[in-house]
Carboxypeptidase-like protein (Sphingobacterium siyangense), 865 residues
Amino acid sequence: MRAKINATTFITKLFFSITLVLTVSMAFAQNKTVTGTVRDAKTKNPIPYATVAVVGAPASAGTTTSTNANGEYKLVFPTSYVKIRASYIGYDSKDAFVTNDATQTKEILMDQQDNMLEEVVVKAKKKKYSNKDNPAVALIRKVIENKEKNRLSGQQYAEFDQYEKMSLGLSNLSEKFVNKKIFKNYQFLFETDDSAKTANKYVLPAFIEEKMSKVYYRKDPSKTKQYILGDQRAQFDPRFIDNDGLTAYFNKLYEQVDIYDNNISLVTNQFLSPIANSAPTFYKFYITDTIKTVQPWLVELSFFPRNKADMLFKGQLYVTLDGNYAVQGANMTVADDINLNFVRDLQIQLKFEKDSKSRFYLKTSTLGIDFSLTEKGMGIRGSRTVDYNNYKVGIQQPDSTYDGPSTVIAYNVENKKATKSLFETQRPLALAQNELNIYHNIDTLQKIPSFRSFMDIAALLLSGYKQAGPVEIGPVNTFYSFNPVEGFRLRVGGRTTESLSKRFYAETYAAYGFKDQKWKYFFSGTYAFNNKSVYSFPMHYIRASYKKDTKIPGQKLEFIQEDNFLLSFKRGDNDRYIYETNYGLEYKKEFLNHLAIGAAFNINRQTPAGSLTYQMVDANNESRLFNELNSTEVSVNFRYAPHEEFYQGKIYRTPIFNQYPIFTFNYTAGIKGLAKGEYNYHNFNVGAFKRFYFSQFGFADVTAEGNYIAGKEIPFPFLTIHRANQTYAYQLNSYNLMNFLEFVSDHNASLNVQYYMNGFLLNKIPLIKKLKLREVFSFKGVYGGLRKENNPDDPNYGSKVFTWQHNADGVQSSYTFGSEPYMEASIGLSNIFKILRVDYVKRLNYLDHVDAPAWGIRARVRFDF
């Protein structure tokens, strides 16, 4: 017994002595610095946020670190240690020996864990996959059951610091491309692509933006408030590119990923989360590993889509075994056969950390996407990293903290020096040298004359405007067109830019019709109250204008000019035009919460053109023609679009729709006796738009609108002439088989549904699914009528309003609604050649109207991911 005690005491003393000697040695040992990069052994892609530790050293400062977003690390530790170890979820740990040199570089290549994936696949062939009695499915159901308490919305109050970084560049550039003569002066931009699978590939970094924020969350009433403390990006010349719009578009493509959401929005599409409530219906789950080297223990769940062409992920989830079933990490990508356009590669990495209450919160989110038209050609590679720090829960802030818009600029945007200093001193993730170079390179690039010339030509092709000093000439697609009234029409116009003035903008054009031999003109002057471009958000301006031109009654276009060349091609009888002279005064103001208000005053003179007639027939059947119609109108309008996103072009904003609705209200009053106005009337219009997401079943855009015009004996030009389309292009907000001026009403309600199924059905048909086509369905209906005091058919009032229009054969060609609404529906295929939508449109009623088409084929260019 004594011998045993003595031996134990000896061993204890020996262990203590060795530990003491090592500790003292470490304290006085000379340090060495090891830097390097941790990469995937197969793809050579850097592995961000991997742990790199000194083997055998105590967990003290410098002996353990994490790689940054580019997979880079730095360790400073005593020379007595000779081995470091890299570890990351989903990879086998990898050791590397180091020398005693004071400074050295060590690249670590890590192998992905195959675990039992191949074995699982083999078993699946022998036994059909089933959710029943599947432990992986039972586990994912536990994750789903507990996700509300594990996510941010499970907290009553939360706050954290947030750092975002987005960078983009041209990828997969060949050596031949880089060495072209045209790039002789731009060699400083190109970098060797270390992640390329083949040699002699280059990248061209082109964009970077960083943002630092303080974020506060409150559950009830729900509100997330982001105070932006600093924002900086590589800016292009605003004359060529809308930098704010570019940022908004990139943010939509590279949205933040919340694994706890049922649906995850990426590249303008929605993907079903692997922990969505319905995930077991669409995914296959396998338990592929149990990780006991961390606390709490983790289970690796591998998941795959049941149908490889659906909008679903594949990858691994790491779930805690502490009874909370929280997600500790996730690696996700998409299947190669997915019905997704232009995406060559997509990688998502999520890393969670424990807070003081042992709850896991999102620490780092990295989303990388490589866009390309072809699999092997040049592409655009982008990455968005969001890092969260100082996560705190349960701290209630004053109500004023959450008031106002969701995002607030909380710094002086003019003090660029202070902003730069903020990022240099407080940036939580260090930028790689090539990322720092982007800021300098973009500034240098824009000083090169040949690049400015290139941007000038690119702006002309994309926006239709040609720079000419302080003015822009365009849009070029309106320079030539034709129609039955004017014949060949030539037009030239332009407008001033911010180079001339930031407060005053002028726009003009002149056009000439060779058939009617008439000149048309337009002039406008706009004053911006906020010293910003009148085309940028938030708008605040007053505009005066004069216009003398033609228009088609009932044609209302969006995002396109009426005299666009492509709209010159029309079907059927389409020669009813109006010569319109308009004097206008307009005021508009937008607020940061995306509420917009407006007011306008207009004086109109209308003259019928082509086969259009303004005619009254009295009780004695005697007709009287009117050559001019005058109106004076005052109007107010409101538009509320919460959380609206858009890309601002040269003329129009292109909406980037999300799940939030858009509401509109317009009121117009016609005033008789003021500035030769001939009629009194009141026009009320309300509308709502909403995009509905149905997860794997696609999404639907729904528009509802109502209109009422109060007044009597009002001629049809001042009533509602319903939107018609006689072109061969499918127009979203017009009735594609309705003729111009076919339907007129003074009260109406309409519904427009566009349902995009995103290939959910076609993806399941053999061979057809390889075409990656997508189904699209639509329904449009409108119903209303004319009160007797505005109806040409009424025996008491018919002689006091304009008669219905007739065609060349004397057959009536305009009407109001009967006992049923006008309806049309379509079924179509989109994603043809990735850009084309073709619809078979069927008109469901009123087929007895003159020249009413029963069906038609319409096409629309639709660029979508």
Notes: Residues 685-864 form one domain.
